[in-house]
Amino acid sequence: MKRRLQLILICLMFIGTATTKVYAQETGHYVPGIMGIKAATLPPPGNYYIMHNVFYTANATYDGNGDKADIGFDVNVFVNAHRFVHVWEDVLWGANYAVNVIVPLVNTDISIAAFGVDATQFGVGDIILDPMVLSWNKPKFDIAFGVGAVVPVTEYDPTKPAAPGKGFWTGMLTFGGTYYFDANRTWTASLLSRYEMHSKKKDYDITAGNDFTFEWGIGKTIMKKVIWTVGASGYAHWQLTEDKGDDVVWDPTVKDQIFSVGPEVQCFIPKIKLNLELRGLYEFGAIDRSQGTTLCLSLFKAF
Asked: What is the pLDDT of residue 21?
């Protein structure tokens, strides 16, 4: 029975779950790639609805030495995430104040031949809450700082490897900035970092190690009736501390990492207050996790 539980847990660890990533051990909640050019710039005061459509596909996973694992691995994940943002002007220490909530709908199709896994499931993923986001906006730069949490709203079940929830809480600190190279703010470089701290998994003695992720973007804005921004974006992720707990059946000293880069284009239509973003990100340098590609199409609507 214990051996069977270990195999189930190992299978589950290969598929991360909360949104779009797939891994060889327990991992954090935050999924990089939905923030690109001007990642650290908040919108002006107002109400916003944002819909992120993310498709992640991978047919390779890598071990702790960075070597490809021959386990017959294949995954396709589609996430339709609904985000609601409200921004108040000049509330605290000269900064705009924002609150943010993200509700993801997740469909996962995964197979791992070596473990006999072949599963598909759709459901609501764990919800991200940001009760405090501060934004300082200056002529040459923007700075953002936030405190948030990821709430496990879906029942965790290790026998369902495609389930959308992870079964633990995550606390998250966010900090970043965008720099403008010219007076018209058309050339930009942005960096947004997130630090995750995780609770113990419900009903299992597993606590994922702390994670550090940063997303970056470089872009050029072209001012027309329709405002275009083109450039490149990507992310880097490292697990900083070891996984802990009596139910950890993998090597806890191995820490996962991944990098990505790809093109991005944005289109803002001022007349209807609508912004569209499209980016394609190609992962590389995987250790102890999957490596694939991400396509993200986001719609931003101001009210």
From this structure: 41
